[in-house]
Amino acid sequence: MRRSQDFRLQRVGGQDLLVPLGPRVKDANALIVLNAAGRQVWELLAEDRTAEELAAALARRFEADPARVLADVRSFLDDLGRKGLLEP
Amino acid sequence: MTGAAADYGALVRSLLRRAAAVRQPAHGTFELTSRCDLACRMCYIRRGAGEGTADAGELAASDWLELARRAAESGMVFLLLTGGEIFLRRDFFDIYEPLTRMGLVLALYTNGTLITPEVADRLARAPASRTEITLYGATAATADAVTATPGSFAAATAGIEALVSRGVPLALKTTLTRRNAHELEAMRRMAGEWGVPFSASWLLARRPDGGPSSAEECRLSAAEGLALESEDRASADDGTERALREAGAAAGENFYCRAGRAAFVVNPAGEMNVCSLLAEPAARPLQTGFAEAWARVTGYVEAAPPASAECRACDARADCGRCPAWSMLETGTLTEPAPYLCEIARGRRDRRRRG
Q: ipTM score of the complex?
C-alpha cells in the first residue's frame, strides 16, 4: 500500500498534520494530526510498503519491540484506510 | 499515531497558539476586494459593486496566487478569502481553484447573494473547509432593509440552498443590528432547518478608513448586547471573546490575539497588515518579499505601547474586549479606552459580581 496523493503534510507550530486537497475536503473535512511515528509512516508510504516493512523501520528508529510496533502500525493503517488516506 | 480532533475549532486554535509561539505566519486573510453588492449601513468595508478590479486598485489574480505561494513557503497553512464580496470578482475561480491544490485549509466569507447554481457546482468540486455566509434577517423585509438592497434575502437564501444541496461545508452567522435583532431566533431556526451551524455577534466596529458606516447608529446598546450575551443567544464577537479568554494571565498585553504573531491580513491593494480593523503597518510582500513583510508585521505588534494606565488599572479589565485595533477605531490611538467597550466591560463585571 501507499499514501493517497489527495493529502498534503503540513506543519504548524511544530505539529504535523494532514490537509485534504480539492474534492477530498467534502468527505474528509478534518485535519488529521500526526505524532512523530505517524509522520515517519506517512513519509515512508510515499512508496509501496507492507505493514511489516513499516514496523521494522519504526522499531529501528524508536528502538522498540518490533512485534508491539507492528500492532500499532496495523491499527494506524486501519485508521488511515478508513479515512481514505491510503491507496492499495 | 494519529487523531482527528473532535472539536475542529479547538484544534485550529491550539495550532495557532503553537504557531504564535514561534512567529509562524500560519493564518492568512486575503481581502480580495473591498467592493460589495450590498450596501449595509453598518459595514466597515464597502465600495460600489460597479467598479472593476483594476479601477478599484485590487491585485490581479496572478498576484494573489504569487502571494499565496510565497506565504505558504513561509508557513501559511490556513487561508481565509474575504471581501467585500468575493464573488464580485469575475476572476474569483482563477484565484480559488489553484489554491485548492496547494495544501491550504481554506475558508470563504460571503454574503451568498451571487452563489448561482453554476458557482455552487464549482465550489462543490473542490470546497473550502468552511464557507461562512452572513444572514441579515429571517425575512426579506428585514434583511433587505439592513442591506439596503431589494432582493438580497431571496438571492442569499437561494445561494445557501444551492450549497446545502451539494454538501458544501457551510456555516451561517449574523451580525445583529437594531434593525434585525428581533429576528435572531428565527434566523437560528432557519439555520437549523438547513442543518448548518449558526452563530450571532453584535459588536459593530467603525470603518478603519474613517469612512461613513453608521456603525454607532446601527449597533445595539451595551445593555441590549449584554442581555443577549447573558442568555447565551449571541456573543459580542466570537474571535475577540475567545482570544480574551485564552490570553488569561497574559491579558495585560496590548495585542492579546494571534494578530501579528501567527496571523496577518492582506488588503485588496496588496498591503499586509496586523488585522482587518487595523491597517498597519502596510507592508508590501509582493515588493519586498514575504519574509520581510511578515517581519514588519511582527515588529509592529512587538513594538506596540502597552494599554493606557487607565485600562491597566481598570477593575473590569478581565471582562473587556478592547484591543489596539478598537482603540484606533474609537480614539485614534493604540492604547486608550474605547467608551463603548468600557460600558460593555462594566456591565459584565457587575453581572459577575451579582453572581
A: 0.90
